[in-house]
Structure formats: structure tokens, C-alpha cells
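Input.
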Amino acid sequence: MKKKDLSNRQSRQSDTRRQDEFNSLNSSLGSFGLEPPKRYRPDQQLPEQPQHRTKKRTKEKAEPVYRTREERQQALNKKRKHNKLLRRIILCAALVIGIIAVVIVLSLTVLFKINTITIKGNETYSKKEITAVLPIAKNDNLFVSDLEAAEEKLEENLPYIYDAAISRKFPSTIIVTITETPTVYGIANGEDSFTLFDDRFKVLDTKAAGMPENGILIQQAEIAAAPLGKTLELTDEKMLENLKQLTDAVKRLKLENITALYSLDINNNYMVYDNRITYKLGTLENLDNKIYSALTATERLNESNPQAEGTMTVTNDKQIYFTEN
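Output.
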């Protein structure tokens, strides 16, 4: 321990002596902000020096070595054939793209012009009336024509068209297939006229002189708005929802001889059969079963009394009774 202490003391004295010599040198020559060199003992490690990364030299691609002149010529010929084939492929691809572009341009400008417009299924409207509204005309392009927009325009501007289906027939024909309103409903305006609409409540006419044959009258309803070709609005929205369920049942069950419908509230809904028997349905739960039960009871009643008039109560499936007027 004494030897180690003596060595440390001598080292500190040597460092002090060197620092004094360095300070004296700085005072005589002028201070340059230098520090005396550091001495390291054997047990101390030198500071790590930054390692400079050496860039890896990319290996240059070695040129192939040919043993004979013939081998070199064969390699050159092979390369020329490859380049020639590549140029042909590029040229063919460009030619095909060019042909496609020309065909597209011709299709949209010169070819596929509409020469014939075929209309079928129409009864209420004449072909001339339909053609006047149809936003597709002869000499229009078959591809550019917007068929969906044309269908919507026909259905809105010609209300009795329940559904318009337009299709293309190559090379130059447009086919318009019309489905007219199957069932017409009406509400009395109170001035010897009726507002007519279909089962989707699209308004067909606002001042009809009377109800059409096989039309169904909607009773106890008051109209809020009836824009032609648009959806009918009632003052009572809940009543409207009930009526929609009743009209859906008429369509779904393909009911015949139903002449009137009305709804007072959610618990009081009615159908009128042949203008003489009122079906009191109650709520709209189990509606199909109630209607089938009422029709079955009506058939039996007609066998015994075909002219019977009154109210048939079918508020549930088990209890059905008829009250004659």
C-alpha cells in the first residue's frame, strides 16, 4: 500500500510540475488556449477513436470473355435478335392500343348511332307522348345515353307509368318497356273531383272527374300536399303509414273486389269489400291472416245472401262475426 501511495504522489507532483511549466510557457509566448498533453497510466484506456466507414466499392460487372471470334459474333447476334424482338413487341403493343383508341372514338362519334326506338306496353300514353318526354333521340350514341336517368324522367313526367325499363339492342336500337299503374287509389277533393295515386302514393292526377274502374277509394283522409308525379302527403302522417300497410297487403295478396280503405288510428283499420261489407281489422298485426279469414267468411255469406250488407269484425283470428245493416 505504501508503494502505491508513493507512486500516486509522485505522479501528482509530476503533473503539477508539467502544469507549471506549461503555464510559464503560455505567459512568455502568449496564451493560445492550449492544454498540456494528458498522460495515461498503464491501467487507463485511451479514448475510442471514431471509426471511419469505408465505402464498399461496387464491383464492376466483368465483361464476358470469349475464347474465339465466333463465340463473340454469336453473342452479338443473340443480343441483336433480343433487341429486335423487344422492339417488335413494343411496336405491336402500341399498334393495339392505337386501334383500341380509334375504335372507342368511332364508337362514341360515328358508330352505334340510334336508328330505332321501340316502345311497348303503353296504353294510357301514346308513343308520341312518350317519345316527347324521353331524353333519348335518334342519332344519339347508344353507349353515351343515360338509361337510368331516362327511366326516372318518364316515371316522373308521365305519372301513370308505374315502371319504365329501357335497354339497348345492338347495333342501333333502344327498347322502352312500359308497365302502367296496376291499381289506382283516390281521395275525394270535396268538389266533385279526385286526387289519384298508385300504391306507392305517387300522385297521378289532382283533378280527376271520377274514380277509375277497379279503383280503390281512400276514406277519412285529408291531403296536405299532392305534387303531380311526386309522393302524396297527408295531414296525419301516422294514418299515412297505416294506409301504406293496407295498400301493400292489397298488392301482396292480389286482392280483388276491395273498393275502399280507411284508417282512424293504429287500432282501427278497415277494408270495404264490394261496397257493401266492411272488414273491421283492428290493429295491423297478423294482417294477412285476418284478411284471409274475412274473405273465407264472405264467401260463405255470399252463398246464403249474395246481397248482404254490414260489418264483419275480424279483430283476431278466432272470433269472426257479421253484423248486418
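The chain is about 35% helix and 20% strand.
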